[in-house]
Inverse folding.
């Protein structure tokens, strides 16, 4: 597994922090990673759907 570093605006960090707090104390890093993973899955499904409609 690779480790990456990203920069977030303070407001974005606080947003993920609040979500993590409401989810039982998850760290910002975990909330952001989960959000990115979910987005990647949705984008992949959309790409597959579009490819299926073209082919």
């Amino acid at each position: 597994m690779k480790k990456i570093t990203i920069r977030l605006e303070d407001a974005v960090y606080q947003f993920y922090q609040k979500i993590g707090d409401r989810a039982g104390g998850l760290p910002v890093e975990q909330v952001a990673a989960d959000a990115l993973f979910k987005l990647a899955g949705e984008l992949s499904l959309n790409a597959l759907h579009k490819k299926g409609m073209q082919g």
Notes: The CA atoms of residues 33 and 39 lie 10 Å apart.
